[in-house]
């Protein structure tokens, strides 16, 4: 068994060049402190400021990826680490790339019968208006390959479509229009790989005015996170099973966190997306869920790091 004392020299990759750099630096700082507290020889490493080749030259033996968004969660860093032969946390190249692309994720989930809200991929304001006519109001417009609600707009009338498309397209030329599901917003982490993967407790998110945006995610204390989630009997178990299937269908490994909406009328859950390098800040949800399962933050970090591997290991 891998222990913190034989993990070698560990790089905590944080920061990076994505729109989520600020959050990544907070995640990385927490992970770094936790690993060092557990006796791991861990060091901060910002790929925006240093060449990844330095990881090999400086003798790092594994990496904890605390990067979020592009150039960290999308398979690019994973591919570089594969070439360097340095094991890393989380999903491999293909699963990371697919999970980062919300359109591709939805195509795969839909192909195997997993529920996800109706959607359209658009490339213009006119196409966004056509999607609105088809999907109805409200509609979510967002970049297909960003996270943390960056560039997201909730559209309630056709006049908003042009500005919503423009905002999303600033972050990604691939824009997703998605049917809005009114109801409970929940999230569920997964730890492990293959048959050993298990879903952690579900968290129900209650944001001010139902607006779980970037500010309410990371920088306010107004959002309520309920764990135990308080859902009707049997719903939490069904959501955990759904998230675990979604995780395995994309070929994810190590850890991840899936976001789900539950229709208020039908109580049917709909998969929104899956994050293969989840946040680890003071407001983050994986540590919160893990704590409810009896896993302390430092132990969670060590457990994720211990599972670091390569695609062909």
UniProtKB/TrEMBL annotation:
Main enzyme class: ligase
EC nos: 6.3.2.4
Keyword line: ATP-binding, Cell shape, Cell wall biogenesis/degradation, Cytoplasm, Ligase, Nucleotide-binding, Peptidoglycan synthesis
Family to which the UniProt record says this protein belongs: Belongs to the D-alanine--D-alanine ligase family.
Entry annotated with the keyword Disulfide bond: no
A Pfam family it matches: Dala_Dala_lig_C
Gene3D superfamilies on file: 3.40.50.20, ATP-grasp fold, A domain (3.30.1490.20), ATP-grasp fold, B domain (3.30.470.20)
Location, primary (coarse class): cytoplasm
Reactions accelerated catalytically: 2 D-alanine + ATP = D-alanyl-D-alanine + ADP + phosphate + H(+)
Residue ranges annotated for the ATP-grasp domain, each copy included: 106-306
InterPro entries recorded: ATP-grasp, ATP_grasp_subdomain_1, D-Ala_lig_Van_CS, D_ala_D_ala, Dala_Dala_lig_C, Dala_Dala_lig_N, PreATP-grasp_dom_sf
Cofactor: Mn(2+); Mg(2+)
Annotated protein name in UniProt: D-alanine--D-alanine ligase
Pathway annotation: Cell wall biogenesis; peptidoglycan biosynthesis
Superkingdom: Bacteria
Single annotated GO MF: D-alanine-D-alanine ligase activity
Annotated localization: Cytoplasm
Function: Cell wall formation.
């Amino acid at each position: 068994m891998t222990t913190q004392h034989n993990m070698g020299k560990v790089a905590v990759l944080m920061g990076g060049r994505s729109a989520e750099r600020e959050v990544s630096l907070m995640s990385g700082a927490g992970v770094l402190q936790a690993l060092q507290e557990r006796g791991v020889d861990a060091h901060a490493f910002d790929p925006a400021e240093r060449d990844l080749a330095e990881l090999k030259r400086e003798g790092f033996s594994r990496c904890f990826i605390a990067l979020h968004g592009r150039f960290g969660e999308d398979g690019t860093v994973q591919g570089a680490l594969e070439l360097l032969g340095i094991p890393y946390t989380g999903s491999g190249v293909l699963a990371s790339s697919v999970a980062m692309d919300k359109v591709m994720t939805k195509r795969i989930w839909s192909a195997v019968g997993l529920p996800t809200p109706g959607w359209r991929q658009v490339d213009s304001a006119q196409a966004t208006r056509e999607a609105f006519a088809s999907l109805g109001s409200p509609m979510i417009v967002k970049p297909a390959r960003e996270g943390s609600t960056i560039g997201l707009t909730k559209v309630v009338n056709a006049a908003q479509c042009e500005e919503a498309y423009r905002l999303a397209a600033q972050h990604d030329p691939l824009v997703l229009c998605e049917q809005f599901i009114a109801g409970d917003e929940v999230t569920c982490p997964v730890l492990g790989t293959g048959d050993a993967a298990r879903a952690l407790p579900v968290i129900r998110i209650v944001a001010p005015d139902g607006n779980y945006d970037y500010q309410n995610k990371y920088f306010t204390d107004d959002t309520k996170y309920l764990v135990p989630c308080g859902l009707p009997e049997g719903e939490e178990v069904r959501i955990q099973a759904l998230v675990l299937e979604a995780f395995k269908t994309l070929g994810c490994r190590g850890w991840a966190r899936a976001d789900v909406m539950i229709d208020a009328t039908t109580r049917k859950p709909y998969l929104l997306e899956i994050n293969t390098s989840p946040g680890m800040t003071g407001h983050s949800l994986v540590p919160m869920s893990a704590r409810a399962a009896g896993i302390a933050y430092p132990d969670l970090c060590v457990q994720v790091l211990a599972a670091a591997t390569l695609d062909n290991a």
